[in-house]
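pipeline/complex-builder :: batch 7 item 3
reading input block
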Amino acid sequence: MNWSMIWQLFVQTLDASTPLLLAATGEIIGESAGIANIGLEGIMLISAFTAVYADSAFASPLLGVLAGLATGLLLGVVHGYISAYMKGNQIITGTGVNLFAAGFVAYSIIAFFHVAGYYTIDLSLTVPKIYGVSPIAISSLVIAVLAYYLLFKTQIGLAIRACGENPEAADSVGVRVELVQTLTSSIAGLLTGLAGAFLSIDWNASITKQMSAGRGFIALATVNFANWNPLLGIAGSFLFGFFWVLGEWIKSIGWLKQLIPVDLFNTIPYLATLVVVAGLIGRSRPPKYVGVPYKRE
Amino acid sequence: MLDGRLKEYLTGFAEVVVAIVAGMLIGGLVMVIGGYNPVDAYYQLFVPSLTTGYGLEMTLSFATPIILTALTFAVGVRAGLFNIGAEGQMYMGALGAVIFGAITLPSILYLPLEFIVAAVLGMIWGVIAGILKAYRGVNEVVSTIMLNWIAYWIVESMRVYVIPNPVDASKTVSVPPAGRLPLLVEGTELSAAIIISILVLIFTYFLLWKTAIGYEIRAVGYNPLASRYAGINVRRVALYSFIIGGFTAGIAGFCEVAGRPPSYAITTGLSNLMGLGFDGLTVSLIGYNHPIGILLASIFIGAMKAGSRNMQIYARVPLEMVQTVQGLIIIALSIPGLLRIISRRIGGVR
């Protein structure tokens, strides 16, 4: 183990943690205001597709990232509006988005790229790296720190958290609960959209119909692990991200491959997530009114 | 009283119809953007599969597994749980059944053993999430999705390394003819699996509405706090709900392996199983998580699945469009009073 290997491991873990951290940070902001979104998985997947689409249509990674952001934002607004203003069932809306995404992306890969299930872009179309590190990965850390500052050190953050802890009290002091909830849900969508773009046109140079591969749900586990604190979210996403790297690393060990079917190692990140979440009992406390539509008396 | 109830049912039905129409309209838009003809697509999707004998038989064959996975979700919701693990539980069930393709047994034993092992494996997969929920407080949304992926890779490795088909690399070994459910109509995919599916549906109905366990499940789903004060063991109820759900999803896996020609096996990337668990979720939500609603909804979604091949061949729309429309219907369904909102808007325009 020398320095370059440690650096390598760090970069790989950072990459694997980035989509988790972005989605988890967004979801922490959203849930702090009382809106839960289990559709992160779907938002990530659709944004990954639109990012690839815009990227290859305009030969511009920047436009690809913007397309991913815009897609996430749009889906976040829709989820927020249905949840906050129409008092919809947030779990069901999120589930609908996940189902829609799975169908829509598989359909769109065929409809727009005329291939089934898998489309690759040229490496020159991926987001350029800075000293071998993705700028999106670095921003994910910055965004998490900013989110912490926003939530816990500003008046706006106080208002956001009030919407999730005691919407009635927030309402009575003039906070427009529905508006705050829709905006925070939009931020959650926006950041998850960035996570999607990162998956398809930064970390990888492709889109597959199962690109998000459960990461949206691991982001939900990260939110829980982080106890709704974005700084702890960094630690959580690094932990969960590390398991993805670990799985790939174990897969490359020659003699182990002879003993155990290599596909079985793909279970490692999911198994590890389960074990970590099971060990968390009683440690975390969600915002009191998360998932409950606020109805004025 | 009956009048009020009838009105409630009719409103519920109308709400579902509105959500379906809304979902299909937006789905049509998606098709237009993709350069397809939505009218043609919807015609191919529904008309042959609901108006021809062969189409109806195929519709029923596709309704078979999704009735069972819908029950998984419904029993969860009735207990206040969001069990979206039918997918993985069904994979494990299918694995439990297909293993018998590699085992030599007296022919009479195949079907009962396939059924039992499938149901038990599905149940074990469900109960893991149940234990994590009841004793470790793990959110079932996260745990069931993790378990789905773990099941996917377990079954996929088994398919490649343990029970591959020696002559056809695209699937596992097939269960022997003695381990297959008889076809109800020759030349279709409709087998006796539909009978099993409906029997399980009736059984689940009785369990939920006519037994003490079912009463406890529904009570906890309705009001967990009050149920606890009334002396119901809420943890045990969560476990029961996952056990029953895993059981029905496991049977869905059995039905696909033992009851669907031509492969009677698990195909590459689990392609013949993939999505059946989530289809059940759609069926259950459209059917208001009630057995009778599930039966009706399974025919609707079954028709879409049966028609999807027609749609792909004749309207050239990729069959994944079906799941896209399902997702849109669910999003529309999540909006309470959608019917009221729309009728008010229309009234306002007048």
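note: The beta strands of chain A are 118-120, 206-208.
queue -> next item
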